[in-house]
Design a protein that fits this description.
79 residues; mainly alpha; 0% strand; 3 helices
């Protein structure tokens, strides 16, 4: 199992799972008229990455481990 591949895939899958939360609408800062664009972006990113943290992390770890093991098994079988 390649640890580098595992961590890269886990990171990418976690970000992909967080995208709907990051680009979602309805975060409470939307309704504050004095909020700057930076404050809104920071709030969306923080909320998107932290919502359902354990579920997204579990899925990302499973996908990363599966892909890494599949890749290493494929390299062993290939002459």
């Amino acid at each position: 199992m390649s640890w580098k591949l595992f961590f890269i895939i886990t990171f990418i899958v976690y970000i992909v799972l967080s995208l709907p939360g990051i680009f979602g609408v309805g975060y409470v800062i939307d309704w504050v008229p004095e909020a700057t664009i930076f404050q809104k972006v920071k709030g969306y990113v923080r909320e998107g990455l932290s919502t359902n943290f354990l579920l997204k992390l579990s899925i990302a770890i499973i996908v990363g481990a599966t892909a890494s093991l599949f890749r290493s098994k494929r390299n062993i079988v290939k002459p």
